[in-house]
Each structure stands twice: as C-alpha cells, then as structure tokens.
Amino acid sequence: MHESSGDTALIPARLQPIVACAAAGLLLAACAWLAAGDRPVDHDAPPVAAARFTTNINTAPAVELAQLPGLGPTMAARIVEHREAHGPFPTVEALLDVPGIGPTTLERMRPHLRPIEPRRDASRGAP
Predict the structure, then answer these.
(1) Which of 59, 106, 122, 123 is deepest in the core (most CB within 10 A)?
(2) Residues whose CB falls within 8 Å of the CB of residue 98, separated by 6 or more in sequence, listed in order
(3) DSSP 46-106
(4) What is the pTM of this model?
C-alpha cells in the first residue's frame, strides 16, 4: 500500500483552490458589509419596527380602528359614532373632537393613519 496525502483529505486537492477562493470571497463580502455601516441586530435591543399598517379613519370599521395604538373597542366605537353623527373627519386632527382622544393618543395613532384627501367640490367641476 502506498500513502498519499490526497487520499485522506476532506476536500479533494483539485477542489481546494476553488474552496479557498470562495471562502476568501465570503470574508471580503462580510468585511464590506460591516464597513458599509450595517450591523447585526442586537437581540436585546431590536430596532423599532416601522408602522406596519395604515388605516383610513373615514372608512375603517370599529374592529380595524381598535387595532390602533392607544385605542381599544370602546374608543374605536366612539370614533365610528362621531363619524356617523358629524360626517367624515376633515383632518386627522379632527379626531381630537372625539371624547377621550387627546393629543397623546392622537400622536400614538398618527403613524398608522392615512392622510385625508381634501374633498373635491362637485359644484366647481373638479375631476
């Protein structure tokens, strides 16, 4: 029997240069990623998630409104009741007219509220 170092190698000798180049490429890519400023997420302090959904306060049902931060079923029902009694909200700030909604609650909800489009005046022939 004859011994050869190629027979016992985990990676065949002809593939070793390819594997070495691939490993070097991965290391360079990791260094470039870190140099670009991206950092791994710290599991103890994850980044704040962006708003995941938005809603239209003039069309959303109470069930959908109840999902907004700072609201629950009771406040959501008040918003719907106010909307039915007084018509659509002309601005997001008009939510302050709903009993129980103050500036702090409005600011918590704001990232989840779609902008209110200005009403088009049909008498002026707006498209």
Answers:
(1) 106
(2) 75, 78, 79, 82
(3) PPPPPP---B-TTT--HHHHTTSTT--HHHHHHHHHHHHHH-S-SSGGGGGGSTT--HHHH
(4) 0.54
In whole angstroms, give the CA distance from residue 112 to residue 54. Answer: 4
Tokens 């959501």, residue located: 76
Nearest Cα residue to 106 out of 9, 26, 98: 98
Mind listing the domains of the chain with CATH numbers?
1-40 (no CATH), 62-112 (1.10.150.310)
Contact 53, 114 (CB under 8 A): no
37: left (phi over 0), alpha (psi -120 to 50) or beta: left
Q: Give the tokens for residue 108.
A: 């918590």
For residue range 88-123, what is the model confidence (pLDDT) as tens digits? Answer: 999 999 999 999 999 999 999 998 998 887 766 555
Diameter over CA atoms, the chain: 101
CA-to-CA dists, residue 101 to 60, 75, 96, angstroms: 17, 8, 5
Rg of the chain over CA atoms, in angstroms? 30
